[in-house]
Amino acid sequence: MLETILFVVIAIVIIGTALGMLLSRNAVYAALFLVANFASVAILYLILGAPFIALAQVTVYAGAIMVLFLFVIMLLGGERISGKPVFPYQRWVAVVIGVVFLAEVAMFILAPNLNAPIMQTPSADFASPQALGMMLFTEYSLPFEITSVILLAALIGAIVLTRGEQRSIREELRKIGKKRQEG
């Protein structure tokens, strides 16, 4: 009973922080809502008895990834999100994807036989840190490295985009300064 109440409270917090992230017009606030969401999901992992995944959730996502997001947001100066959609059809695509998602949720709730596990029950040491480390650095080393290269490329791209804007602003300021000196 206590676990159910705790789950419901944490689920409400997760839904609230997710809605706060989606509805926030300030990108920094949206990132902070996402950090709170990651921390709440980590608490759910602790309830499920997966402390390693909870620790990874906090350190990797709420720590490293969100620091990178905030760095890029501040570097690009995108604290405010514009009110207009970039593409005219963006709202309709979002509505269609939302309806499909809700249909999938309804299907899994209303058809419990579809929720039956397809795979076999994992062994007792399936989620141990040793097993996860061996899988990460043997079987999944290539996707792990590809992800790190993609994140590095995104960071370099953000820096290059910002440097170009800063140069044009500097050039405009120099032109204004020269006109004042001449006039």
Q: Would you spell out the secondary-structure blueprint of this structure?
A:
Elements: H1 2-23, H2 27-47, H3 51-76, H4 90-110, H5 129-139, H6 141-182
Q: Can you characterise this structure?
A:
By secondary structure, the protein is an all-alpha fold. The mean pLDDT is 78. It is built from six helices and no strands. It has helices at residues 2-23, 27-47, 51-76, 90-110, 129-139, 141-182. The chain has three domains: 1-83, Up-down Bundle (Four Helix Bundle (Hemerythrin (Met), subunit A)); 86-114; 126-183. The longest helix is centred in the C-terminal third of the chain and has 42 residues, at 141-182. Helix 1 packs antiparallel against helix 2, helix 2 (27-47) packs antiparallel against helix 3 (51-76) and helix 3 runs parallel beside helix 6.
